[in-house]
Amino acid sequence: MESPKEPGNGKQWIKFTSLGLQMGITIYLGSLLGEWLDDKYPSESFSYFKIVTLIAVFIAIVSVIREVIKMNN
User: Fold this and answer.
1) Cα separation of 38 and 48, whole Å?
2) Residue 11: what pLDDT?
3) Residue 9 and residue 38: Cα distance in Å, rounded?
4) If you ran DSSP here, which 8-state letter would residue 8 be given?
5) What is the CB-side half-sphere exposure of residue 15 using CA atoms within 13 A?
6) pLDDT for the residue numbered 68
7) Residues 37, 65, 14, CA angle at the centre, nearest 5°?
8) Closest CA to 38 of 28, 50, 54
9) What is the pLDDT of residue 8?
10) Which of 20, 40, 51, 60 has its CA 20 to 30 A from that of 68?
11) CA-wise closest residue to 60 among 22, 9, 3, 13
12) Measured between alpha carbons, how far is 10 from 14 in angstroms, rounded to an integer?
């Protein structure tokens, strides 16, 4: 037998899906910014692409963690 669905359960799935999409967009835009900075200010010893992409990943992970904590409270 199937258990009855809890009210609001579908909304949480939508929130989790949107979090993944938000994370992907943040990282993608960070990589585009890093690429643009590399083209604008070329350097042999410094890569803006790597630095800005890592910062974007950090921001995306912090954002997801905050949203998950907010959902649990």
Assistant:
1) 6
2) 72
3) 44
4) T
5) 15
6) 84
7) 95
8) 50
9) 59
10) 51
11) 22
12) 6
